[in-house]
Design brief:
By secondary structure, this protein is mainly beta. It contains two helices and 16 strands. Strands 1, 2, 3, 4, 5, 7, 8, 9, 10, 11, 13, 14, 15 and 16 form a 14-stranded mixed beta sheet that branches. It has one domain: Immunoglobulin-like.
C-alpha cells in the first residue's frame, strides 16, 4: 500500500472542511486495521494529507463514540484518550511520532530506529521542547476537557500543519518532492476509554505502534 500526498493549491483554513476547496483534491486513507485486542468499538477514521513548500498538512476525521480527553498538557500521554496519530520517517533512520488527542493536546518525539531496546522499553528518543511545538498550527472541533465520556455517536476532526524546518532540525535536509522516499503509518486509539481500541492504516503485528518496519511508502505528487 502507498499513499500519495498531493500538492496544496492553497493553504487549508484549519476548519476541518473535508470536502472544501483545499482538501477536496487530497487523497483519502482509511485507518481500518484493528488489532484483535480491541473492543467491539471500531470507529471509522479517515485521514488526508497535503504539502507545499513550507511543510505538511494533515486532516483526520473520526466517527466515534465513548470519547474522552483528560490530557491537557502537551507531551502528556494523549494515547490514553481518544487519539489520532501519524508516524513519519522522512529518511532511513529516525522517525517522528505525532500524536493528538481529540482536543488538540500533542505528544511529539523524534524516535531512534529501532525504537525499543532489548528490554522492550523506548530508547534514544528526543522530546521536542515547547518552543518547537509552538511552530505547529492545530485546529480541532472538540474544545474542552472531557472527563465524562461522550457515549453517544460524535463526529470530530483534527487538522494540523508541521513545518519542514521542524522536520529538518531532526531528520536533516529534506529532498525535493520528486526524490522523497518517505514512509509512515496512521493510527487511531483510545487506551483508557471504556471501549479501548487500536487501529492502523498499514497493518501491524503486535500491539505496538512503534514498528517502523511496518511503515508504508508515502509519495509526493509533483507538478
Amino acid at each position: 500500500m502507498t499513499y500519495t500526498i498531493n500538492r496544496a493549491v492553497a493553504p487549508p483554513a484549519f476548519c476541518g472542511d473535508w470536502d472544501g476547496p483545499a482538501w477536496a483534491q487530497a487523497n483519502t486513507l482509511e485507518i481500518a486495521h484493528f488489532h484483535p485486542k480491541s473492543s467491539d468499538h471500531r470507529p471509522r477514521t479517515r485521514a488526508k494529507m497535503l504539502y507545499d513548500d513550507l511543510g505538511l498538512y494533515v486532516l483526520f476525521r473520526v466517527a466515534d463514540r465513548f470519547v474522552r480527553a483528560l490530557q491537557t498538557e502537551h507531551q502528556s500521554h494523549v494515547y490514553r484518550d481518544s487519539c489520532v496519530e501519524f508516524f513519519v520517517q522522512p529518511k532511513p533512520g529516525g522517525y517522528f511520532n505525532i500524536e493528538f488527542n481529540c482536543i488538540g493536546t500533542m505528544l511529539l518525539y523524534y524516535m531512534a530506529d529501532p525504537p525499543r531496546g532489548p528490554d522492550g522499553k523506548l530508547q534514544g528518543h528526543r522530546i521536542l521542547p515547547p518552543e518547537e511545538l509552538a511552530t505547529i498550527r492545530v485546529g480541532h472541533s472538540l474544545q474542552d476537557e472531557l472527563r465524562e465520556e461522550i457515549a453517544e455517536p460524535v463526529d470530530w476532526w483534527l487538522e494540523y500543519f508541521i513545518p519542514n524546518a521542524l522536520l529538518e532540525r531532526y531528520a536533516g535536509p529534506l529532498d525535493p518532492p520528486a526524490q522523497r522516499r518517505w514512509r509512515g503509518n496512521f493510527y487511531k486509539c483510545g487506551d483508557d476509554t471504556s471501549h479501548p481500541h487500536w487501529a492502523s492504516w498499514a497493518p501491524i503485528e503486535r500491539l505496538d505502534f512503534h514498528q517502523p518496519d511496518h511503515f508504508a511508502p508515502l509519495t509526493f505528487e509533483v507538478g
